[in-house]
């Protein structure tokens, strides 16, 4: 048998992202810098695909949109944690309009996101100034 595990276990999606979206290195003073990650997701099935500044909106310049998707074809609950000072978080559509009943409470584990197979979620984050 050639069953060496699934593509999920092999980390194919993460490797593909690393290949297609390599990290860009910017020079900096390493003495002042410690390891830092703005976002982490609790499930390997969920890929954080996009982080961008929100378009011109009433929330002002301190708003950003992050887009995540479920890549394994599973139904999963994932926790999104961020080191950014989030004042408010809500689900939004692809045009960055907040969804009705889309408010996400920020718990100790982060933002709780529920995914159906291959579902894409967009989250609007309003940051404290």
From TrEMBL:
Span of domain Glycosyl hydrolases family 38 C-terminal: 45-117
Origin superkingdom: Eukaryota
Molecular function in Gene Ontology: alpha-mannosidase activity; carbohydrate binding
Coiled-coil positions: none
Pfam families per record: Glyco_hydro38C2
Swiss-Prot/TrEMBL GO biological process terms: oligosaccharide catabolic process
Protein name, entry field: MA2C1 mannosidase
């Amino acid at each position: 048998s050639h069953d060496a595990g699934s593509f999920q276990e092999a980390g194919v999606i993460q490797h593909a992202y690393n290949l297609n979206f390599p990290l860009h290195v910017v020079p900096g003073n390493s003495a002042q810098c410690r390891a830092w990650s703005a976002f982490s997701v609790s499930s390997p099935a969920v890929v954080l695909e996009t982080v961008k500044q929100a378009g011109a909106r009433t929330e002002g310049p301190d708003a950003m949109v992050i887009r995540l998707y479920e890549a394994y074809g599973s139904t999963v609950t994932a926790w999104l944690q961020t080191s950014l000072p989030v004042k408010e978080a809500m689900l939004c559509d692809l045009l960055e309009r907040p969804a009705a009943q889309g408010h996400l409470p920020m718990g100790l584990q982060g933002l709780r996101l529920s995914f159906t197979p291959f579902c894409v979620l967009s989250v609007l984050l309003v940051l404290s100034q």
